[in-house]
Structures are given as structure tokens and as C-alpha cells.
Amino acid sequence: MIKLPNYIVHGGDYNPDQWLKTPEMIDDDMRLMKEAHINSATVGIFSWSMLEPEEGVFRFEWLDDIMDKLNKNGIGAILATPSGARPAWLAESFPEVLRVNENGIRNEYGVRHNHCLTSPVYREKVRIINTALAERYAEHPALTMWHVSNEYSGECHCEKCQQAFREWVREYYHNDLDELNDKWWTGFWSHRITDWSQINSPKERGENHSSALKLCWDRFVTESHISFYENEAAPLRRITPDIPITTNFMRMYDRIDYQKFAKHLDIVSWDNYPDFTGGNIPDKAVYTAFCHDMFRSMKNGQPFFMMESTPSIVNGRPVNKLPRPGIQTLTALQAVAHGADSVQYFQWRKSRGGHEKFHGAVVDHSGRSDTRVFREITRTGSLLEALGGVTGARCESKAAVICDFENSRAVKHFCGYNNERRDYFDECVKWYRPFTEAGISVDVITMDADFDAYGLVIAPFLYMLKDGVEEKIREYVRRGGHFLTTYLSAVVDSDDLCFLGGLPAGSLKEVFGISVCETDSLFENAPGKSSFLGKEYDVEHVCDILSAEGAAVLGEYKSDFYAGKPSFTENSFGKGTAYYAAFRNDGELSRDVCAYLVKKAGIKPDTNLKTSEGVIVRKRGEFIFVMNFTNEPKETELDGKYIDVLSGEACGSSVKIGEEECRVLKQL
Q1: How much of the chain, in percent, has pLDDT values that exceed 70?
Q2: Domain with CATH 3.40.50.880 in the chain
Q3: Which end of the chain is more exposed for a tag (fewer CB within 10 A), N or C?
Q4: Which tens digits make up the pLDDT trace of 515-536?
Q5: Alpha helix positions (H), 514-659
């Protein structure tokens, strides 16, 4: 039985192995952690060269001391496996563990995640060090969780990986070259495959590679990472079966299909670095909220961990501006509002050297506790203690936006229509935005999810239609669901083969009551015009020209040769309704359409609180988070008796939210 913490985890990356020559600083860290209300430390992430300085020679004494100190001070340890960066002796003795780039050149030793996922040697060396860690600390009272590796990423093109890819493809296509040639449409440009040995990984920008080959490589890379993770996790599960295991994902990094990977984790975690500087913070807040809800949805709404965030500044942007006072606390509470059971930082103490020596930390190079950053982290910690009752609570959603990682890759790979402006994730966020701004909880799901859990499902730019999804959409609508999709949807199958017989694919023409006649692309800064319920909007970048075949027309094009043709339709099918938004608009269309759909589907906001622009309300369990992402104070009217959870004071008829502040309420 996995044991998850029953409190909000507050801590972050701690690298005491960098400070072993100054043990007094480590003792000071224990004091400072307690002062800052830190209850967790993630240790050992990049410590392989300290744990195993020579092959087969282990040095755990320093880590023993750290684990004991953490336990003595009431601080839990999230113990990391060190595979993200290998020691020099490993690369020197076994050069095959180093990656080969897509041009066939083996990388030199250095950086991190420079390892071949297929290498039997590397897998074995990782298994050995992980087994040693698990055996040594299985019974240690400080151990609360395993953090496997760190931010998995990248790919290897060595001959071992090429052969593994060929074997993967061979199994995927049932050892049938005819099936492969049909699915990859290899008759184009005379690329027919006559032997499995002719298959190689694609170049990232190689236009001569079919999209199907690229998709297969994407799937192989994902499954290679999952397989590598499972190799890492196996000894941990065997030796410490009750300790949860996770690894940290990265925002919209879609080189790995996180939605598939998440199924293998005990708890999803991700690293959150929103750029809440330089203006436009409300928009950035919505984008971050989307990420939170996406990661929360990956395990059916189970709370997630925010494994990293910055307590201050970052170091990797063109201009690394200090965040304003209060932003860090607002970032932390936003994560909790959307389902996080942890607030963790990179890092606890700022490194003295190396690539990230100027990345923010709770404890700066000064080592002082009277800095602005330390005081804010301390305040955040005390607030999280007051919110301990939210742990484990779920967000209840009656609406969902489909954002499917496989579809994202397919959208990137095809060549056609508007090749300058085509951002799938941005399109998903655009349709998510109106719901979160209206205080309506939204799940961000794959096209494989159960649609019946929702009264409304929105599927922007659903270019790829996986096997069985056509029937899922049909049955969902027939049984009473409300389903919206947009331009360039249901165009290709899982192998990127275009559907024949007209679009949208198959029986979806009947479900939506339309057919797509043509698709047009528009030049930047030269939009067309269209309407929706009498209001006019710009048509930007791409649009489908429709023929209504039973659907009610709610919008028409107002410009170009297709003026008067349908641009937005609504079709009753069975007990439900299907909607088709045929054009892209980066303005008000999604807000106006979603307001219309919410009424049609009977979806209510999570609370009755009325807010103003830039203020987002989110309910989780019995807690209501009122977040102001603007730089001016706001006021929200209340519809009953509420208490401010963080101050313990009763609220009046309204509540004031300071600039870039969060208030947490509970109704009495």
C-alpha cells in the first residue's frame, strides 16, 4: 500500500554534497529549514560521482549523515536516483553509454541526460546504484518518496537504438512489411521498404521522412523512456513497496508523451517556472493553470506534486528579471488551488559554481535569513500549514478540453496549409481560458479518456483521430453530451494517413451535420471576416469552408470568395449536440462560444463569487482560492458567510484581494 504524505509538502532540491567541506553550513541548513517551515528536502539528484566515486566503490556515509540530520529535525527526505548525470569513470570505461546525435556523432562526456536509453551497460549500472540506495535506506524513517532521475529528455541515435527501433517497428506492424509500407505510404518518392534493416531514425528536419515514420520514432522514444524508468523503479518497488515513486515532468515538453508516461508513476509531478515578469501576467497565469490541470488530469484527477519552482529569479532566460514581492506565494497557492499537494523549489541553497550558480534559491550566497526571498518562503510555509486540510482533495470538473500529446506531434510533423502559424498547445489553452476565467474547473484530457464524465468536451484542432475515437465521439453526443471541435479536425488516422470520403472523417459528418469542402490559409496581418451569432470576428491563419448538411448555421464568412458559407455550426444528434468552429480566431471568439456552450450544457461556475478581470476563482474541496493576477487591488462580492482560512478572520459582504495576492476562503 503506497503511503502518500497527509500534509502539503514544502521543500525542494537540496544538494549538501556540494557543501561537505563546510559542515557548519549543513548544520545551519537544518536550522534555516525549520525557520522557513520546510518539511521536505529532495536529496541526491546529481550525486552519482559522490555516491560511487569509482566503479563498485560506494560512499554512502555522507548521505547517511544528511538523512539522519533531516530525520532529527523533522524533515522528510525525497530521495533521488542519480541517473540524470553519470560520473566520468562510467563514460570513460563504457563510452557506449554516451548518446549519439542524429548525425551519427557520439557526444563527449559532460552535461546531463547524455546517456543512451537502450544501453544494457547503463541500465545495469543504474540498476546497481538504485538497488544499493534502496537497500541502504529502505527502513530509514526520513524516507518519504523516491524521485527517479530528473527531467527525462532527449534521444539517442546509436546503432543499439537504431536496432531497438527496428525491432519496435517490426512488432508494431505485426512483422508485416506490406502493412508498414501501406501505413507509411512509402510509394511516395519511391521509399518502399523491402527489409527491416532499411529503417533508421528520422532527422528532426528531414523532409524526406514520412510523418508516419516520425510518429513511430516519437512513440519509440516515449516507450524507451518509460522502459528506462521502469528499469530504475524496479528495485525501488521491490525493496520499498510502500514508498511512492515519481519523476518530474516539464511543462509542454512533448518529445515524451507524458500522458502515457504518467500511468507508470505513483504520483505525477512537474517543474513549474512561469514567467510572471514583464507584463501580461493574467495570460501567463491562465497558461500555468492549464499546465496544472493537464498534469492533474493525467491520473484521473489525483493530486500532483509541484516538484520544482523558483523561490526567486531564474538564470536561463534572455533577461532574468526579479519577480515582484508576493508572486512566489501566489504561484504556490495557484498550484495548490489546481490540485498540487506540494510546493517545492529549485533550490534550497544557491550553488557557488556551475551553470546554475545565479539561479534563485531560498538561501542566497549571503547565507542570511533576513532576505526578502527567505521571508516570503517562510510566510508561504506558514500559509501552507494552515491549508493542510486541502491535502488529497480533488477538483470536480464537468467540462474538459482535449489536449493530446500524440496529436501535438502529428500537428508538428505535417506540411501544408499554414506552416508559419500552427501551435497546437496554444490553441488548446485558448479554448481552456474562458472556463478558468469564469471560475469553472476544467480537466485537460486525452482523446482516450472517458468523455461521459463531462457535460461538455472541447477538442481544438483534433487533426489526428486515433482508432475508436470516432465512435466515442458519436456515442458521447448521441447519449446527450455537448462536443465542440474546430478547423482541421478528424483529418488523419494514427499513422497520419488522410481519411478518404471527405471530412470530418466517417460518421462524424453525420454527427456534426456538415462536410468540409476546402481549407484556406491566410497571410499574417491579412485576416478575413466571419460571424458568430451576429458578432463579427477576424479569421486568422486557417479556416475550413463548410457545407451544412443538416446543421444549424450560427456563423458565416463575410469575406473572400467563400463569403456566405457556414463558419460555425450546431447540430442535434441523438440527445446531444455537436458544434464545429471552422476558423481560427485569436481574439474573443473562444470566450463568446464558451459562454454560449456553458449555457447550452447547463454547466455552472464552481462558486457564486463574482470577480473582475485578472481575478481567478478556483474551488478545491471546501476551499475557495481567489487569486488576483493584476498589479492593482481588487474586490470580490460574497454571497454568504465566509472565513478567511489564512487569517482565521470572518469576511464581510465582500473581500479585498491585494495586488498579486491570493485569499483562501471557506463558506460557513
Answers
A1: 99
A2: 399-601
A3: N
A4: 999 999 999 999 999 999 999 9
A5: 589-601
Neighbour-count burial of 490, counting CB atoms closer than 10 A to its CB (0-12 exposed, 13-18 middle, 19+ buried): buried
Q: Is the pTM of this model over 0.90?
A: yes
Q: What is the pLDDT of residue 3?
A: 85
Structural domain 399-601, CATH architecture: 3-Layer(aba) Sandwich (3.40)
Catalytic residue among 155, 308, 406, 661: 308
- 615-667 falls under which CATH superfamily? Golgi alpha-mannosidase II (2.60.40.1180)
308 catalytic residue (yes or no): yes
Cβ burial of 592 (10 Å; 0-12, 13-18, 19+) is middle
| Residue-level pLDDT at 152 | 96
Lookup: cell for 129:
546504484
The lowest-confidence range among 208-217, 262-271, 374-383 is: 208-217
Q: What is the DSSP letter of 391?
A: T
In the residue annotation, 151 being an active-site residue is answered as yes
Out of 151, 232, 570, 661, which one is annotated catalytic? 151
Is residue 460 within 8 A of residue 423, CB to CB? The reply is no
Residues 6+ apart with CB under 8 A from 577: 477, 482, 483, 570, 571, 600
Distance, in Å, from the CA atom of 504 to the CA atom of 445, rounded to the nearest integer, reads 21
Other C-beta atoms lying within 10 Å of the C-beta of residue 28: 16
Query: How many other CB atoms sit within 10 Å of the CB of residue 629?
Result: 27
At 654, the amino acid letter reads S
H helical segments located in 530-579? none
Q: Are 309 and 343 in contact (CB under 8 A)?
A: yes
What pLDDT, in 10s, does the model give residues 640-663? 899 999 889 999 888 999 999 999
Three cell numbers, residue 472: 466515442
How far is the C-alpha of 444 from the C-alpha of 407, rounded, in Å? 14
Alpha carbon distance 343, 621 (integer Å):
18
At the second CATH level, the architecture of 9-83+115-153+223-390 is Alpha-Beta Barrel (3.20)
Segments of the chain assigned to CATH 2.60.40.1180: 615-667
The predicted pLDDT at position 204 comes to: 65
**Residue 543: phi, psi to the nearest 5?**
-155, 145
Enter the C-alpha cell of residue 32: 534555516
The three-state secondary structure class of 467 is coil
> Which residue is listed with cell 493530446?
404
Beta-carbon contacts of residue 67 (< 8 Å; ≥ 6 apart)? 43, 77, 79, 137, 140, 142, 143
Does residue 1 surpass a pLDDT of 80? no
Amino acid sitting at position 29: D
User: How many CA atoms does the CB half-sphere of 471 hold within 13 Å?
Assistant: 2
Measure the CA–CA gap between 339 and 299, rounded to whole angstroms. Answer: 12
**C-alpha cell of 143?**
524516507
- Choose among 303, 300, 149, 291: nearest CA to 226: 149
The pLDDT tens digits of the residues spanning 324-339 come to: 999 999 999 999 999 9
Q: Taking the CA of residue 252 as centre, how many other CA atoms within 13 Å lie in the half-sphere pointing to its CB?
A: 18
> With bands split at pLDDT 50, 70 and 90, how would you rate the model's confidence at 351?
very high
